[in-house]
């Protein structure tokens, strides 16, 4: 079995349960896994050794919310929004039409290029969603093409009611033939529970259909105004509710209550519903930033994700999301890094595999061209990714 030692790490942010930050550290990788972590002076011998020159290392980003399976872009809509127009879900139809015009090869290449772009910026685990198909054949095609290109795949047939459809009839289609067609390809079922998309009752039907199939769930909720999305997600034990811009006190309490069976000190027990904050989307849609600080203070576990998509957040740069969370959402750097790594892993149910630098986990590492991780927020907008290791392989 091949071993690789990454040594002379100036600062190693482990995001382990003790939030250890080590100086003069080293990490031993054996094949795809982390085999040893500690002081570089005590590091074991390895087949190969790489001197990182005092650079900072942290876990690779776990981006738990993106929509990479699309064609075209919506720059005009963005420009109109910056001129004062507000975001409405209807723009999804523009992307659905552009995506349907791409061949399988063109669509796969577009998704692979977006995935590669994110990986080059430190994202070692990436979720993406269908949701620009909105018809049985297209949603199926997107799930088949998307699956090999990402780490976690979510079915979002309930993204928008397509033109010409009655909303209840379309919900029947999503929860019946469409879900049947994609179920074997996906890890999660998601629903956009929002005015202009799916009502509480329709969203409930989507979540019930997922449950009946034994599939885990997520909810797009409380993005454009207060609504039932958070409460539904908690009721159904969803892994996450995403956006969470407009929260009432009861929503925060419900989310906090969902974590009652989880012991944060040992990271054991039953995880609750992660509140996924999407700061790049909030800026691009000029929505109030999600209340990450209040959520953390209430005991809710949060994730930070890019929400890369052509409508509301055309970036997969997690360095930018982390910097924004520190500078604009009042998170400490350690909180923001944890939300973008371990928090994302919790939101995807993969915290046993990735999201922290610990023996036995996948060797997903992000080397910064900086001596300390604080540079992520201290030097916002700079390209600070020096190198990336995914499952032990240098990218
Ligand atoms: O997460 N909110 C719904 N879905 C996407 C936006 C989709 C679009 O406008 O194309 C989001 O922001």
UniProtKB/TrEMBL annotation:
Q: Which cofactor does it need?
A: Zn(2+); Fe(3+)
Where does it reside? Cytoplasm
Q: Where is the signal peptide?
A: none
Write one Gene Ontology MF term.
imidazolonepropionase activity
Query: Which residues are listed for Zn(2+) binding in this entry?
Result: 65, 67, 220, 307
UniProt key word Cytoplasm: yes
Query: Does Secreted show up as a keyword for this record?
Result: no
Q: Which residues bind 4-imidazolone-5-propanoate?
A: 74, 132, 159, 223, 312
Q: Where does N-formimidoyl-L-glutamate bind?
A: 132, 309, 311
What EC class does the entry list? Answer: hydrolase
Q: What is its EC number?
A: 3.5.2.7
Under NCBIfam families, the record lists: hutI (TIGR01224)
Instruction: List the HAMAP family.
Output: HutI
Entry similarity comment: Belongs to the metallo-dependent hydrolases superfamily. HutI family.
According to its UniProt entry, the function of this protein is described as: Catalyzes the hydrolytic cleavage of the carbon-nitrogen bond in imidazolone-5-propanoate to yield N-formimidoyl-L-glutamate. It is the third step in the universal histidine degradation pathway.
This chain belongs to the protein called Imidazolonepropionase
Organism source for this protein? Answer: Glutamicibacter arilaitensis (strain DSM 16368 / CIP 108037 / IAM 15318 / JCM 13566 / NCIMB 14258 / Re117) (Arthrobacter arilaitensis)
* Primary gene name: hutI
């Amino acid at each position: 079995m091949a071993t690789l030692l990454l040594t002379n790490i100036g600062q190693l942010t482990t995001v382990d349960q003790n939030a250890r930050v080590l100086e003069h550290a080293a990490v031993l990788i054996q094949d795809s896994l982390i085999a040893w972590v500690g002081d570089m002076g005590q590091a074991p011998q390895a087949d190969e050794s790489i001197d990182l020159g005092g650079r900072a290392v942290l876990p690779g980003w776990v981006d738990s919310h993106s929509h990479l399976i699309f064609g075209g872009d919506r720059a005009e809509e963005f420009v109109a929004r910056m001129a004062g127009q507000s975001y409405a879900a209807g723009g999804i139809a523009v992307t659905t039409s552009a995506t349907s015009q791409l061949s399988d090869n063109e669509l796969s290449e577009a998704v692979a290029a977006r995935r590669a772009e994110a990986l080059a910026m430190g994202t070692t685990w990436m979720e993406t969603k269908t949701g620009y198909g909105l018809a049985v054949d297209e949603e199926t095609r997107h799930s088949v093409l998307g699956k090999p290109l990402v780490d976690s795949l979510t079915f979002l047939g309930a993204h928008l009611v397509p033109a010409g459809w009655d909303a209840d009839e379309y919900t029947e289609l999503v929860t019946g033939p469409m879900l049947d067609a994609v179920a074997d390809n996906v890890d999660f079922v998601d629903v956009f529970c929002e005015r202009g998309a799916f009502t509480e009752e329709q969203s409930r039907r989507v979540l019930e259909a997922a449950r009946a199939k034994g599939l885990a769930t997520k909810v797009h909720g409380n993005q454009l105004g207060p609504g039932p999305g958070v409460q539904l997600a908690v009721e159904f034990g969803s892994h996450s509710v995403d956006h969470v811009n407009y929260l009432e006190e009861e929503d925060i309490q419900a989310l906090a209550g969902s974590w009652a069976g989880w012991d944060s000190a040992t990271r054991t027990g039953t995880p609750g519903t992660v509140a996924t904050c999407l700061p790049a989307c909030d800026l691009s849609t000029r929505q109030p930033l999600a209340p990450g600080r209040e959520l953390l203070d209430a005991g809710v576990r949060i994730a930070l994700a890019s929400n890369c998509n052509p409508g509301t957040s055309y970036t997969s740069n997690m360095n930018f999301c982390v910097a924004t969370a520190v500078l604009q959402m009042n998170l400490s750097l350690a909180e923001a890094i944890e939300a973008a790594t371990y928090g994302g892993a919790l939101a995807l149910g993969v915290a046993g595999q990735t999201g922290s630098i610990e023996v036995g986990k996948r060797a997903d590492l992000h080397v910064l061209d900086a001596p300390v991780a604080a540079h992520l927020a201290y030097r916002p907008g700079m390209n600070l990714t020096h190198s990336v290791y995914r499952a032990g392989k240098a990218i």
